[in-house]
Amino acid sequence: MNKTVNPNDLTLDDDNGPLYVARKKVYPQSVSGTFRRIKWGLMAFCLGVYYFLPFVRWNRGLGAPSQAVLIDLPNSRFYFFFIELWPQEVYYFTGLLIVAAVALFLMNSVGGRVWCGYLCPQTVWTDLFYAVERLIEGDRRERMKKDKSSDPMKLERISEIVLKHSIWLLIAWWTGGAWVLYFNDAPTLVKELVTFQAPMIAYIWIAILTATTYVLAGFMREQVCTYMCPWPRIQAALTDEWALNVTYRYDRGEKRTSVKKAAELRALGEHVGDCVDCYQCVAVCPTGIDIRNGPQLECIQCGLCIDACDNVMTKIGRPKRLIGYDNDINIHRREEGKAPIYKIVRARTVVYSAIIAAIGGFMIYTLATRSLLDVNVLHDRNPVAVKLSDGSIRNAYTVRLLNKSGYDRVIAIDANGPANLAIHVIGVDSVTPDRPMIVIPRDSTSELRLLVTAPADNNPEKSVPVRFHVTDIGLGEVASATDNFVSP
Amino acid sequence: MTDHHSDIDSVTGKSTTGHEWDGIKELNTPLPRWWVISFYLTIVWAVAYWIVYPAWPLIQSNTTGLFGYSSRADVAVELANLEKIRGDKMTVLGAASLADIEKDPALLALARAKGKTVFGDNCAPCHGSGGAGAKGFPNLNDDDWLWGGTLDQIMQTIQFGARSGHAKTHEGQMLAFGKDGMLKVDEIVTVANYVRSLSGLSTRKGYDAAKGEKIFAENCVACHGDGGKGNPEMGAPNLTDKIWLYGSDEASLIETISLGRAGVMPAWEGRLDPATIKAMAVYVHSLGGGK
């Protein structure tokens, strides 16, 4: 029989140990300082944009939606301020995603995981949920004490817990609610939601996002970053020796001693580190790690440990930034007595910037020069050609005209191909036999049946190209499409 | 029998099942309680499902479930809803005149969409999916119409058919001049060549044009009219144009004249509702051959 070992006594370093350790709940302490202020600012900005953007109005004229940012799925339109995208233009989103990915790479090569620390939704909402928790249950020590307490639940404690979860759910519910507002006119939808007139799908989405926000930000927290998110793994492969990461400057910090002992030793002229082992950097860390162990996967580089350490350094009268944005190169350089160097312009950052500029520039160019009038032509397949009683030959086409502008257009259609072609649009009495005109309402498509006839005395070859031009009579804007004219 | 629970794993501190393979022992890790409860709930759910919904096949039918639910009834309800959604539009279409439908882009689009679907279901077997037709089945894209190509004439043909047995159907057929002994073989050959000459096709060497004209005048003009221009009242085709329903070569013509022709177009009244027939007429007219 084997000897029993208490699993709690084992660590990951133990060869006989388990392959995982159970989560230890993190109780981040409140902290104030530069990076905390940046985080508050960015949180207010990100949440402000997310929660209130659907209510921003944008005048597009009568009959068009007046919401600045709107994903209109039933009508297949996407509105972003002055931009209106049609379904066939979704490649702009592809471009946007590529730019976003490379921007992430660029951020990473300049300042490490700044995305994780300041902008990631998981960070922002978790931070907000922690703030609520702190407000109601108190700071780190109080929360730890309350959680450990084996006393039977007192009414006070229960009401605290209920209040906390209610506020969490309220935030989560608003998060889901804001999401659906991007897909419908916001004021109308709010009214419908309140009066229970909104479509079921809206309530379902609100429920889904309420649940995910509540669970991810309230309970899973740093585990999302450590176990679920792929970015920590990817970024580890993308980072380099010049990237500024939140770094414990061990050249300055070691050896650690107490404040009192350090003063004594310094008086004797011995070398002592600035770190006093106060564990403030660990106490404030939202992922519960010790940054002094060096760069690690769990570190989201939010900079809160920098603030915590700075506060301690100020108190004990030592210079700030024992923990700061730095890289290993400089630690080694300082150890060798050289001045630290920082390089932001490097091959890596230049290439990323160039890619962003190239794709972004191309997108802006295509967006600025994109046509608001478009034509697609589809040749009839059965029959491809018809012989008429007088011996002339006719081909039929389905023509789709797209008017992406905000005004009605009068369009003239010409066919350039074999000589003496007569063209006719079903349902339209042509004034001229070779140039039918038709009105296309704004922001819509029209499908027309177009008949093109070559006279008997001028029957073309088996198959000849024919080019269709559609011209806006008022503005002179032209769009074209090519097809073939076929003889039986 | 060994006591499993006395065998404790040193690493985890948990008991083992007592199973061991090549020194590898199996931990006694029971399924999580929530998992087991979920599993039992699915069993309860399945049993409830059998009772509530139609499930068990019997020899003649099946169990109907507690609430008499059936997916077939669901389909009927959905179809009724669909009709309700479309009802208004189709009513407007049914009330509008044929000419007005073609003038109104929205109604025209609706009629063409509706017509195309119904055409595919009902007409495509003979006329082809795009109305291209085949030998004996008219091409609806061209401008040659046996019974007339105006909107009203097309609608009438769809409604009552040709030689369909309907009281108002188009009547009139090509007689079998050879089979019924009205013309001799050489007369048939001669008149066939004469008919080819009407639309400018080549004729057999040495054929007697005067004799052909005479035979034509005596036998064919009654239906096909002077000069063979045809007569939509009788469904008699125009013999001077370039379009031939049964073929324009001499052999085909001889066959037509000898055996006669009487293609049948079914009547759609009663099978399709009036609004749909209207949509169909507009669709066929808009294929391009309409007059």
UniProtKB/TrEMBL annotation, chain A:
PANTHER family assigned: FERREDOXIN-TYPE PROTEIN NAPH
NCBIfam families linked: ccoG_rdxA_fixG (TIGR02745)
The protein's name: Cytochrome c oxidase accessory protein CcoG
Domain 4Fe-4S ferredoxin-type: 265-294
One Pfam family this sequence matches: FixG_C
InterPro entries: 4Fe4S_Fe-S-bd, 4Fe4S_Fe_S_CS, Cyt_c_oxidase_cbb3_FixG, Electron_Trans/Redox, FixG_C, Helical_ferredxn, Ig-like_fold
Keyword Lipid metabolism: no
Keywords per UniProt: 4Fe-4S, Electron transport, Iron, Iron-sulfur, Membrane, Metal-binding, Transmembrane, Transmembrane helix, Transport
Transmembrane segments: 40-58, 90-107, 161-182, 202-220, 350-368
Record keyword Isomerase present: no
SUPFAM superfamilies named in the record: 4Fe-4S ferredoxins (SSF54862)
TrEMBL record, chain B:
Record Pfam families: Cytochrom_C (PF00034), Cytochrome_CBB3 (PF13442), FixP_N (PF14715)
Superkingdom as given in the UniProt entry: Bacteria
InterPro entries: CcoP_N (IPR032858), CcoP_N_sf (IPR038414), Cyt_c-like_dom (IPR009056), Cyt_c-like_dom_sf (IPR036909), Cyt_C_IC (IPR008168), Cyt_c_oxidase_cbb3_su3 (IPR004678), Cytochrome_c_Oxidase_Subunit (IPR050597)
Pathway: Energy metabolism; oxidative phosphorylation
Domain called Cytochrome c: residue spans: 110-199, 207-288
Subcellular location: Cell inner membrane
Regions crossing the membrane: 34-52
Cofactor(s) annotated in UniProt: heme c
Entry note: cofactor: Binds 2 heme C groups per subunit.
Alphabetically ordered keywords of this record: Cell inner membrane, Cell membrane, Electron transport, Heme, Hydrogen ion transport, Ion transport, Iron, Membrane, Metal-binding, Oxidoreductase, Repeat, Respiratory chain, Transmembrane, Transmembrane helix, Transport
Chief location bin: membrane
Purpose: C-type cytochrome. Part of the cbb3-type cytochrome c oxidase complex. FixP subunit is required for transferring electrons from donor cytochrome c via its heme groups to FixO subunit. From there, electrons are shuttled to the catalytic binuclear center of FixN subunit where oxygen reduction takes place. The complex also functions as a proton pump.
Subunit relationships: Component of the cbb3-type cytochrome c oxidase at least composed of FixN, FixO, FixQ and FixP.
Family the UniProt entry places it in: Belongs to the CcoP / FixP family.
Name of the protein in question: Cbb3-type cytochrome c oxidase subunit
Species in which this protein is naturally found: Bradyrhizobium xenonodulans
